[in-house]
Amino acid sequence: MADQYEVLESLALQESVETEILDKCRQSPNGATNMAELLADKRSHIAMPGIYLMAAMNLCSQGKVRVQQKGQHLTEDASTADNLIITLLN
C-alpha cells in the first residue's frame, strides 16, 4: 500500500510541476523559460531537477512545449538540466 501512495504522490507532484512550467512559459513575453529559472529557489531539494526534467519531457511528448538545449534539440547525452530552454507551443 505504501508503494501505491508513493506513486500517487509522485504523479501529483509531477502534475503540479507541469502546471508550474506551463504557467511560467505563459507569463514570459516570449513564451519560454529555462530550467535554471525554474530550479533557482528549489536547490535545497536534491530530487527536484529530475522531477522538473521528467515533467518538461512529458509536456514535450504531449506536444505542449519544445525542450531545447543551447539552441539544439535535446539529445540523450544532455549533461545538465540547467541549460534547457522550455518553449510553449500552444
Structure explained in plain terms:
With 90 residues, the protein is an alpha+beta fold. The protein has one domain (2-88): Arc Repressor Mutant, subunit A (Orthogonal Bundle). The protein contains three helices and four strands, in the order αβααβββ. It has helices at residues 2-27, 35-39, 48-61, and strands spanning 32-34, 65-69, 72-73, 84-88. The protein has a four-stranded antiparallel β-sheet with strand order 1-4-2-3.
Assign the CATH architecture. Answer: Orthogonal Bundle
Low-confidence stretches: none
Tally of strands: 4
Quick one: CATH class?
Mainly Alpha
Number of helices: 3
- Distance, first to last CA: 38 Å
Tell me the overall shape.
globular
Query: Which topology does CATH recognise?
Result: Arc Repressor Mutant, subunit A
SSE order: HEHHEEE
Q: Which sequence of strands runs across the widest sheet?
A: 1-4-2-3
Strand composition percent? 15-25%
Q: How many structural units, i.e. domains? A: 1
Radius of gyration using CA atoms only: 13 Å
Q: Report the structural category.
A: alpha+beta
Protein name: GH17692
Give keywords.
Arc Repressor Mutant, subunit A, globular, four-stranded antiparallel β-sheet, single chain, 90 residues, alpha+beta
